[in-house]
Amino acid sequence: MNIGFIGLGYMGSGMAMNLLQYCQNSKHELLVLDINETALNNILSKGAIHGESVSNLCAQCDVLFTSLPSSKEINLLAFGDEGILKNLKMGATWFETSTNELEEWEKVKERAPKHLMLVDAPVSGGAEGASAGTLSIFLGIDEEVLVKFKPLLEVIASRVMLMGSSGAGYVTKLAQLHLNYIAAQGIGEALMLGAKANLDLNTFHSVLMNSCSKSYVVENYIPKVLDGSYDKSFTLGLAEKDVRLIVRLGSHLKVTMPLMEKVYKTYQEATKRYGSKVPHLSVVRLIEDKHNQYLRK
Fold it and tell me: pLDDT class for 27, splitting at 50, 70, 90?
């Protein structure tokens, strides 16, 4: 079996490395592509095969994985005479693992040949989880298809979750990010309340961790605000993109989301002020700047 992987960035590089090890242990081949020559050469040096082009890679692959920044790149690779839909091997399956727009994915599926299986399969767990093979993967897929591919998906994810029919994976990913970004902004406001009352913020963090407020965001994000790093593992620009996709999903599904619309305005303001390349928790800096008080110690 030939497996293709396009997109060796923040998440893709770790997933591809795990698939390469699987292929080497199972006498399969992994073909890869990325515009980043450093990332591409790194995995080629370990035994992956250069895909050369989208059309060439797709023509050889029984299974394709993509991990891309947005629907713009997905559509760019999907359509056209040299694209995925025109060139992917007869009967192949495409797992699209990006954080994508449901509306745009529906357009891709509408134009896909009937012989192809397209699966929305976004992942969660960060670059560390991608490297360790401990991601969660949310699938818009029929159960019989999942049974066929579950052993392969378990190479990159410790939690392989069937969420429903086509599109359910993308909705799951964006819905859980909805709560993440609301909470991320909320911790800034909560910490500022503590700071203005002269609380010891490290002790306050301990209180939050042992109360109804306990969550991944409280556990992992607050220390990265207090140490002033603002979490360099993810950029503010990518966070703003995620929030925009959530708002657009709400519009597409006709769900009103006044909280997320307010959060989106905050992320837009933070990106305009600090730039897209800064750490994503720089959104908390807006609260610090408006109150002329840093939360970091």
Answer: confident
Kindly give the interhelix angle for 102-111 and 236-252, rounded to the nearest 10 degrees: 70
pLDDT confidence tier of residue 81, bands split at 50, 70 and 90? very high
* Exposure string for 191-213, b = 16+ CB within 10 A, e = fewer: bbebbeeeeebeebbeebeeeee
CATH architecture of 171-291: Orthogonal Bundle (1.10)
Backbone angles phi, psi at 60, to 5 degrees: -105, -10
CA-based nearest residue to 59, from 100, 13, 90, 95: 90
* Cα 204-230-128 angle, rounded to 5 deg: 105
Average pLDDT over residues 168-187: 95
Give the pLDDT mean for 31-54: 95
* 2-165, CATH topology level: Rossmann fold (3.40.50)
**Residue 291, C-beta contacts closer than 8 angstroms, at least 6 positions apart:** 192, 196
Residue 297's pLDDT is: 65
Could you tell me the residue ranges of all domains in the chain? Answer: 2-165, 171-291
Query: Tokens 């992917």 correspond to what residue?
Result: 88
